[in-house]
Amino acid sequence: MERFWFLTFDGLAAGAVYAAFALALVLIWRAARVVNFAQGAMAVATAYVGYAVVSATGSYWLGLAAAILSGLALGALVERVLMRFAGPGGPLNQVIVALGLVLVIQAVLGMIFGNEYRPAPAPFDTDALTIAGVAALSPYDLWVLGAALTVVALLAVLFTRTPIGLRMRAAAFAPEVSRLLGVSVGRMLTLGWALAAAVGALAGMLVVPTGLGLHSHAMDLVFVIAFTAAVVGGLDSPVGAVVGGLLVGLILSYVTGYLGPDTTPLAVLVLLLAVLLVRPGGLFSAARARHV
Amino acid sequence: MTAVLEVEALSSGYGPVPVLRDVAFTVPAGTVTAVLGANGAGKTTLLRTLSGLLRPTGGRVRYAGEDLRGVRVEHLVRRGLAHVPEGRGVVTELTVAENLRLGGLWRRDRADARRALDEVYELFPALARRRDHAGHQLSGGERQMLAIGRALIARPRLLLLDEPSLGLAPKVTAQIMALLRRLRDERGLTVLLVEQNVRSALSVADQGIVMSLGRVVTAAPAARLRDDDQLRHAYLGF
Amino acid sequence: MTTTPTETAPATASPLRRLLPGAPAGRDPRGSTLLRHLAVAVFAGTLVVLVTNQLAPYQNLQVARVCAFLCVTAGHTVLVGLNGQLSLGHGALMATGAYTVALTQQALDERAVRGWWTLPASLLAGVAVTALGGLVVGLAAARLRGPYLAGVTLAVATLVPAVTTIFTGVFNGEQGLSFPAQTPPAALGAYFQPERWLAWIALAAALLTMLLLANLVRSRFGRSLVVVRDDEVAARLAGIPVARTQVLAFVVSAACAGLGGGVYAMLTATVAPGKFPLDLSLFLLMAIVIGGLGSLAGAVWGAVLLVALQDLPGLLTEHLSLSAGLAQRLEGNLALAVFGLVLIVVMLAAPGGLQGGVRALTARLRGAVRRRPATRRSPDR
């Protein structure tokens, strides 16, 4: 039972990061009807920026801020320079352009920083605290959980309570009507990409210290898990992305804990296929499945 | 009487397919002008070109004496030109309140925007009752009221209205036409009304423009269109 | 992807019209499509065989690798270009075919089963297993419209290499498997170059794939692929089962990738997860995009490109005389960056790819030839 609780807490902490990352995917999907396959690579790039600032200034918090800011800039840049021009050719073209971006980002990172894993120290202790005899969360886990959930809450407030959030939602749902009502739909799209990339950057900063370290491929698996989380929740649903992320985090934690870490990739694949075969619309989406 | 809208030799279309050819007419201030014609006559294309959703391939649109060429769609509403597109134009995923708020987001004069919102709720008590319902939960008539109400929050000078009667019961259509008459008489609103429902449109319009195959075939006072049997038979089918 | 013209059926006629049974647009005025494709295949095959007789062992291996990749790119380009479904997992599908062939060959060898038919049987098993895997993935992805196939196949490409370490007993982990290499039959003489024989086998597989796909594309099914891509509603109205067509297209494409993977494994008589990384799947996509999506001729360009790409990094760093540290960083990465960039530029500027360029060029030449006798028409009529 002790182990169960440990795995539960561990899974929630990991799941919070998946939730944030899945949320970033859902943001762009809702705004532009594109799954940003470059999101993992973009997040790694911003994490490199963040940790470069950390090692230059010695401050984790400055590094975190730098990563998030560079995420905002990178997201806006990608939308303005690439996606806007790939858009007219259809979503397939945008996905292919995003994959080209993955190759470029990973290669450039490899050229600048080399191909070996670089250490990415965590700002807090990563040893688990023991509460009432049960090994639960480490201080770092608590920070991860808190930061990810704070971002989710902030986004929820932004989208439901602020004028800019209302504009962004309207622009995503009904671009033409929104333009007639004075909303700059193009600007909202840029903002959506920027926000999503910033959330991705935060998720990257949170997840990198829990893995092997900084590497151009460090987010490959995280991206796939986040995509799975988004599919579990329904690609259209922000709430679904959060719940899906936590759920996938828990499931993977149990699988890893009870069956061994080697089985994690297989578990992700089985989960993804199973959700699509059994409940393709996800848990929270209104999308209707087709008969095959 | 000054003209709010002057259209000269306007042509436009989708890609290489021309739809509007050499369209010209004027809309005097404080009147309701009905654009009539069969399906495919180019009525909706006309509105979309006027509000910049479609780029004209030739000709000129002057609104309040200003050439609209190069003015971005997003900025038209700031100049008092509101377009309620076909199919109600309600963002169905948003609530009634959110749809109405969206209509006034661009306004600097927050106090007046709030006043305009209160007036819309007063004008359409049904909307006030269903404030927190999502757009897709509304009936067809309620959606049309929401779309018009949302346009009114911009305090427009010119309202482009595309097929407001589409799919509505005759009684609801009559209400909407009565509302347009009231807005014209009480607020001096200028309306360009695209309608398939000729009888309803002419019941409120001051003048009518008849379109056929992308051209204007007749522009005349509404009373004359109502009475001219030949015209009615040829283009309006009743 | 509506801008990409199809290889064999120009998009000028309405898609629905081409679907009608017996519509003249689908018939070729020059006689049977099958015979014509067969003639082209025999001609191309003879040409390549003649060329391989002049080549050194390493060059013949390169020809063989081009042929192995051609099986994959041809099936891939039909899926992405003609059916509009994006697969990012064709590298993993290759791995499936390769491992199946390796396991089958090993099993046959252990039981001392020998004969000319063992390799075709193993390849067939590879095709069957990969097609089955494709069916599961395709079914899962086809339940919803949208980016699901791309996502699921990306997951497959990312995660499948790890599967080999979970079932180490079967797949032997990172080490991979090896099996007896193919040797030329005695009838060809004792001194026959083994690499030439491998090239011939790979060539046969590639020609078979191209022949089948060329006919498939011209068939009723091939036309429905395009209609499904361009307009799902129209397809449904024309009585085409949209989701089933998409699944079937993916299965066909997977089968081709399985064959290519099996042939690829045969060339070195080994398989290992390191040969099928995520990047391979992205390279395959890049190859067909640059070759020209939806074009079988473009798939040939793509396959050549893939083999050139494998040899490029070493060449680059060798000739640039760099410091050891820098060379190590650039190795591989430089090519990756260039190809990523090319992928983006092609997608934004020339979605027709290389074959699109070739087609435009030949059309212009043909137009020039045809125009010469007549007086030139002014462009404004």
UniProtKB/TrEMBL annotation, chain A:
Membrane topology: Multi-pass membrane protein
UniProt superkingdom: Bacteria
Keyword Membrane: yes
InterPro entries attached to this UniProt entry: ABC_transp_permease, BCAA_transport_permease
Localization of this protein: Cell membrane
One Pfam family this sequence matches: BPD_transp_2
Transmembrane segments: 6-27, 34-54, 60-83, 95-114, 142-159, 188-208, 214-232, 239-260, 266-287
Assigned keywords, A-Z: Amino-acid transport, Cell membrane, Membrane, Transmembrane, Transmembrane helix, Transport
Family: Belongs to the binding-protein-dependent transport system permease family. LivHM subfamily.
Name assigned to this protein: Branched-chain amino acid ABC transporter permease
Annotated source species: Micromonospora chalcea
Native organism taxonomy: Bacteria, Bacillati, Actinomycetota, Actinomycetes, Micromonosporales
